[in-house]
């Protein structure tokens, strides 16, 4: 009927976006312009079966909601921690940040359950795709993004495309090493910037200081029942706690030196920091670049992402870019 | 005359190759197949004027010799330490390994003096071009080369082309940092793999041990007048000198961890080591990759270069590839 045709035309072309992180499992409906129409957040389950089951349930609920929101879902984009073969839609291997998450085919079960095409990539790579389509990377041929959450992820855009590498292990920027020894990392090795500067690393140090009764400063609002996080470390340092300050200084130096390594390897036009700690890190990282990089790289600019949810938006961009090109 | 025409036909298409390194200034006549027909070596002068003067003299001598060797010189390829803008033929900036070597236009004086087209690139990048045309990189889409001489240089081939970067500072692999502190580097910073594992770094450590009277082992052939080098450090370690062994172990670990960083950033198919220390480093670097890289990158292979002179051959390849494409 005519009214049905009009309804169809008024539908917004959208993507279903999934982000499988070290802490949360999130699903979102993202429309063509990059707006998140609806978002669903759960704790990411610890086992493979529970994780897949919850993901499929959240996706089905979202597809149902999309109908009433008049969003036409073109496909599913999945962002996940770990090394991903995007051609196959398979997670090859993950660090212990996400357990039971190696040799996992994500495309087949999601595509079977929803009857939609599915794209999968690494979370850092998705963050870079989001910056390319919606953020500071728009129109920039070569840039790098580093996303700090529970862990640290990254993505490299070279000549407008992601670098995936020969074994899909490129842009594993969290596992750049800035020490021959250094703290243990989720990857099993040592000295990675993730082990110094991720949310998890700062939380580990905050807990350690708190256990030694050296975190809390007078006047600091910290309830006994409250879980200790990176935020407490930052506020303690701001209130003059020199131990907290030393921990953060080391974290920042490690992240900055790791980024200098990126500049000396791929020499991008700009570096985009995202995640909750991005605004905290921006200024000191820029200073470390000016102090420690080769002269030719010292002027490379560090931006903080203007995007609310880079991983989810990047996952959506895989759908919006490819599905529209192929189908319409 | 007919005999002149035949002579002309029998001439071999060749390149003049120049390598401006931290120690030597070398010029070579390189024929199309990658054979070095004749080579000239001098100590690289310490001042800009002397260096340019000597380079032009050596080039003119070589051009003269080329005639009698029946080599038809198509152009000049120059390999140099420092950051190079190959489009302009200009050295932008160098570390103190080559003094008075910033903002130096190499193309114009050489082209004016010889009446030949001139190509210029960084020495590590030239080494990578040599591997692509004549070495282990033939037909390999993504690989990395690391050349250890006085300093450490590198080149990255991605999708069959060099990565130069936004400010011609990509593949400065000697200045990958593996320590937040660490030894001082020629670049003015600290903790770079060049400061741990270059010929110059090992020589510095060998001299230090020798000054402390801890280098020489019984039965070791070391004359008082002989300059102390990396080779003495290696032979002392092989004869059971535990101090020398510890220095080399640290150097190797630093180089290996630096290469792991490369694997986690661009994830090439293979790593090619060249320079005098390549065969020494190959095995321990392969072991460090298997111990410290992410699982997906652990199997990436380390080769030693089969080329006698990667920087000179790579400089020649710029001429042979471009000049033949353009002129013939
Ligand atoms: Ca990545
Ligand atoms: Ca280089
Ligand atoms: Zn790690
Ligand atoms: Zn350096």
What is the quaternary state of this protein? homodimer
Please name the two chains that share the biggest interface, counting residues whose Cβ lies under 8 Å from a Cβ on the partner chain.
A-B, 51 and 51 residues
Shape of chain A: globular
The portion of residues assigned to helices of chain A is 40-55%
Number of strands of chain A: 13
List low-confidence stretches of chain A. none
Largest sheet properties of chain A? 5 strands, mixed
Class of secondary structure makeup of chain A = alpha/beta
Order of helices and strands of chain A: HEEEHEEEEHEHEEEHHHHEHEH
Give a description of the structure.
Chain A is α/β, with parallel strands linked by helices. Helices cover 41% and strands 23% of the residues of chain A. The first copy, chain A, has helices spanning 2-10, 48-68, 107-114, 123-134, 193-197, 199-211, 230-238, 242-265, 278-292, 310-327, and strands spanning 12-20, 24-31, 36-43, 71-80, 83-85, 90-93, 104-105, 118-122, 143-148, 152-158, 161-162, 270-275, 301-304. The first copy, chain A, is globular. The first copy, chain A, starts with a helix and ends with a helix. The mean pLDDT of chain A is 94. Chains A and B meet through helix 8 of A and helix 8 of B.
């Amino acid at each position: 009927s005519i009214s049905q045709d009009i309804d169809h035309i008024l539908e917004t072309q959208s993507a279903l976006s999934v982000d499988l992180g070290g802490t949360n499992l999130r699903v979102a409906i993202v429309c063509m312009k990059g707006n998140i129409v609806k978002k669903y957040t759960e704790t990411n389950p610890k086992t493979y079966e529970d994780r897949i089951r919850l993901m499929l349930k959240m996706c089905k609920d979202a597809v149902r909601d999309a109908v009433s929101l008049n969003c036409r879902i073109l496909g599913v984009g999945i962002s996940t921690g770990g090394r991903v073969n995007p051609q196959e839609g398979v997670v090859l291997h993950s660090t212990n940040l996400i357990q039971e998450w190696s040799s996992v085919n994500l495309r087949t079960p999601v595509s079977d359950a929803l009857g939609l095409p599915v794209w999968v990539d690494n979370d850092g790579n998705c963050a870079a795709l989001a910056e390319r389509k919606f953020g500071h990377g728009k129109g920039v041929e070569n840039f790098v993004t580093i996303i700090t959450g529970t862990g640290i992820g990254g993505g490299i855009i070279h000549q407008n495309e992601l670098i995936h590498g020969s074994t899909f292990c490129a842009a594993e920027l969290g596992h750049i090493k800035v020490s021959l020894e250094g703290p243990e990392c989720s990857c099993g090795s040592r000295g990675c910037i993730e082990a110094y500067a991720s949310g998890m690393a700062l939380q580990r140090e905050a807990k350690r200081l708190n256990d030694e009764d050296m975190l809390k400063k007078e006047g600091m609002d910290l309830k006994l029942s409250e879980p200790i996080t990176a935020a407490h470390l930052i506020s303690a340092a701001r209130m003059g706690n020199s131990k907290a300050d030393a921990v953060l200084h080391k974290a920042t130096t490690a992240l900055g030196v790791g980024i200098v390594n990126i500049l000396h390897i791929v020499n991008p036009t700009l570096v985009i920091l995202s995640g909750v700690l991005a605004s905290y890190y921006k200024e000191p990282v820029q200073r470390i670049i000016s102090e420690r990089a080769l002269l030719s790289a010292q002027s490379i600019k560090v931006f903080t992402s203007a995007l609310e949810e880079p991983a989810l938006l990047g996952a959506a961009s895989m759908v919006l870019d490819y599905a529209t090109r192929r189908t319409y």
